[in-house]
Amino acid sequence: MQNSLFPRPANLLPFQGDVFYEPGFFSKQEADNHLIALQSEIPWKQEPILLFGKKIMQPRLTAWMGDKPYTYSGITMQPHVFGPTMMAIKNKLEAFTQSTFNTALLNLYRDGSDSMGWHRDNEKELGPEPIIASISLGAVREFQLRHYQTKEHVQKISLEHGSLLLMQGQTNTYWEHRIPKTSKPLAARINITFRQIQ
Ligand SMILES: O=C(O)CCC(=O)C(=O)O
Ligand SMILES: [Mn+2]
Asked: Which of 53, 85, 93, 108 could form a disulfide with 61 if both were Cys (CB 3.0 to 4.6 A apart)?
């Protein structure tokens, strides 16, 4: 994971997990180009989820990439192939993290009223201590983490345009995370979480 261009950042969690933030992972120019390309290259859709047995629409647009369908919260997402922009992002990420990723979940938050609720990325197929690499493009949104059992130790990170956030080790066993709504007038943000599924 070490790269001579980047000094090793500090762990943002106090215990039971490792979260690293790399604000300038992409240059402003690269991040601008990826943001524009992905807005049109990705077949964005608003999908329902099952919440307490009721189907409700997710408050954001999504897409799934990989070689298998993906099932979570009662819905199954059909996979798309990695296009040229996604391949360029994945290649840079794999070189930097010295890890491989075979799937990606993409989220498009259209404005501040789009969000993602508290959850852990702990699906069985990810294995016990997955590396999840999260790329942010566009509007700056606040990412929050809190301890899953105690709901304490809330950590807040502003995820900037072109940044990388790595969650690894025990993070997704002991910590949950979310992107809260905000009343700030914000432009769109794209988030991509790369994962390795067995
Ligand atoms: O938008 C983000 O930064 C978080 C996305 C996320 O947690 C997920 O896709 O599982
Ligand atoms: Mn997540």
From this structure: 108
